[in-house]
Structure formats: structure tokens, C-alpha cells
Amino acid sequence: MILLNLCNSCESKKKGGGSYALSSIAVAKTEEMFEKPGRIQLDELFDDFIYHFTFDPKLQGQHILFPLPYNNLNSLSKIEKKDWQLDSLYTEEIFFSLIFDREDDMELPKDTSLTSVQMEWISPESHTIKKYCFKRIKRIWYLEAINVFAYEEGKGENFIDFFSRFSNDSLFQQKRIKRPLTFVTNDPDDDFSIIKTTLSLNQWVAFKPELPTNKISNIDYEQQNNNNSNKKIVALKGIGNGFSNTLYFQRKEGKWQLDSLYTEEIFFSLIFDREDDMELPKDTSLTSVQMEWISPESHTIKKYCFKRIKRIWYLEAINVFAYEEGKGENFIDFFSRFSNDSLFQQKRIKRPLTFVTNDPDDDFSIIKTTLSLNQWVAFKPELPTNKISNIDYGQQNNNNSNKKIVALKGIGNGFSNTLYFQRKEGKWELYKFEDISN
Asked: How far is CA 247 from the centre of its chain?
């Protein structure tokens, strides 16, 4: 049992596309990060390339084939290098959307043999697509063209037009939801399970994810995406924040409807007193590990106790108990409020906040700088809003400690943030934020 593993100028025909490329985008945009020419490995996933391309103006300029062909509704021109300005693509948004016909195609972003990818902005109002065409030449990705063109209607109700109205018109939205709506999500009490249930219309209104209200983003990995398909999958992925929702649509009797919603937390949290203990998950000699769900509301912990017997891991017990308060302000209660109350959060951040992140130009270096309160608000990671997960590897975790480290780790998405807290005069505060997402 495994315990935890934790274009040639692109065509004017709409193909659609999708990727989880931007889920690992780091959100720090300090000028200090961009002083040196780009030097990164660009020979594997498109995701790794676009992460740097969107933030680093010098590197972006080095990976565009100038003069860049620009086709605006059949009006042809070329952009010279001296006229180019940094294009941040999707990174100013809090999430991006991806469109698929088939679930199998949702794995295409992991294909390292790809040589052509297109990033798109779809405008339902003007019925146009702005497509950024990337090509890999000798294992290096380059932007080779930008094309703007009208998209094809297809037969029956066009999905893009439907989805735009579905996202913006609440009355129309309610008419186009299957009743009851299938709902799939993580089991909050079992990290290895999912829950499949249904939502009423009122429950959908309460739990529905944020939807794109203007232009619709998409990434085309050359997967099947046919305008005449009667099934569509829209994946909504947060940019560096753990947000992940997938909507499944089907067309019946010529009309699209939402058939099911899948939502998931794509990160988990770990709590430490000491930085040295953060290496414990790599210890192959461990024989006992506990996975925990901490509920601040009920002040209880549900603990899954695993034991290794003859080198094989087994679940041997499940225990639920009240957690101790300790002296002074309890960290769990503080962290729960810090995660859910934005005004309280702002009061409990050291100013300026120390910020550590990867150097985009050097795989072996990090950058240390500071964030203002406004920068924190813009760049803060997704935080647990209900129960808090933890894995007890035997690390020191004392309720009376005046330092706590909360590591937020993505599940299969490169998301990695660490928050450093200290207790001063009885009150907890965040004093350092580390983002080493990749």
C-alpha cells in the first residue's frame, strides 16, 4: 500500500484545447526576479516553458520569432522586436478554463513529445478567437504567430455561445442544469476516497464555482474538440491557488445542459514546529505515520493511524479525539480564522512580509525579497477554509511552541507554498511566505 505519493502559423480552424499548464504558475512579479537574461530548461513540458514565458520580459523576447506574424481577421502584419511589450497571457486572472470533448484528452498536457501548442482567448461577443501559436524547435519552445479569426458555428446550439450565456445569465443557467445534478468531490474524512452525490438547484446556487464572465481562455494541445460533439468538459483551474472544478455538459435534443460537477481540493497542508522536521517525509525508516483531519469548529482531530509491518504499510486504527488548547492563542483556531477572515488576516501579517521564491533564471537559486500588504492580497495562495489536513511523521508539534510552519503541497500539480508563523506577545502572525511551485 502506498501511503502518499504525495506551428507553422496555426490554422484558422477552431480545435479547442486544454491544459493544467498554469496551475503551477508562481505569482510573485517583483522586478528583482527579472534582471538577468533567461536561462531555464525548456526541453520537456510546455507547462514548464510557459511558466517563465509569462513573467519574464527578457526571456519572453528571446522566445519569440521576430518579426512576429500577426493575422487580425485576414489583415496581415508583422510585429518587430522593438515594438513588443510583455504579454502576461492568463496570469492576471485567478483561474483559467480548458475545453475538452473526451476525458482521456485531459492527460495530453503531460505529453513531452508535443511540438505545437496554441493558447487562446475566445470572445463570444465578437465570435472571434485570438490564438497564440507556439512551436518547439530543437526542443525549445517559441511563439511563432498570433492569429485572430472568426470561429465556426457548427450544427445546433453552439457550445461557446451557450457557455457564455450560462456563465452570465443566472436564470438561463438554472434552466440548463440537470435535476438533480450529479456532484463528485473529495471525501473530507478520507484522503483516499471521493463522494458521489447529487445537488438540488438551491444547492447548486450555493456551491457553484466562479465562471468566466467575459472572454473564455483555452489551451489547444491538439486534442479532439469538435464543434459538432454532443459532450463538452470545461475544466476551471486556479492560477497558483489550488482552485479546481470540472463541469460536464451534454447536448440533448439540440440543447446543452450541465450534467455533472466535479470539485476537488488539489493541495494538502502539513504543520511543523521546526524546519529540520520538514525532511521527515523522506525518511525511509519510518514505521508509524498518522494522517489527520483537524476540525476547528468541533475542536476535534480524526486520525488515521498507519503502521509498517515487514516493509508494508497498513491502516491499523482510526481515532477521533478533542485536541488540546495549549497556552495562549491556540494555533489551529488562529489559522482557521486567518484562512477564512480576510480582515483578520491582514491584521496578522508582518509588514513588510519576507518572500522567498525560485529564481526563474537559475534552477539552483532562490530570490529573497519582501511583499507589501497589497502584494500579499494579490499573490496569496489558496488556504484551507474548512477542515485542516496534516500528516504526523513523528515531528515535534507542541501546542506551546511559538513558531509554526504550514506547508501547502499540491497533489500532482507542482503547487508548493510554505507559511512561517511566530507568536509574539501571545498573538500569532505570518512573518515569511515561501513559494517554490514548479
From this structure: 16
Burial class (CB in 10 A: 0-12, 13-18, 19+), 403: middle
Tens-place pLDDT, residues 270-281: 999 999 999 999
Half-sphere exposure of 372 (CA within 13 A, CB side): 4
- Cα separation, 181 vs 202, in Å, equals 11
Q: Give the tens place of pLDDT for each residue, 98-114.
A: 999 999 999 998 888 99
Q: List, in order, residues 6 or more apart from 276 with CB less than 8 Å away.
A: none
CA 150 to chain centre: 30
Closest CA to 107 of 189, 167, 47, 56: 47
Q: How far apart are the C-alpha atoms of 14 and 220, rounded to whole Å? A: 9
Contacts of 272 (CB under 8 A, 6+ apart): 278, 395, 396, 397, 404, 405, 407
Q: Which amino acid is residue 290, in one-letter code?
A: Q
In this structure, what C-alpha cell is assigned to residue 337? 480564522
Reduced to 3 states (helix: H, G, I; strand: E, B; else coil), residue 108 is helix
Kindly list the structural domains of the chain, giving each domain's residue range(s) and its CATH number in brackets, ordered by start: 159-214+224-263 (3.10.450.410), 267-435 (3.10.450)
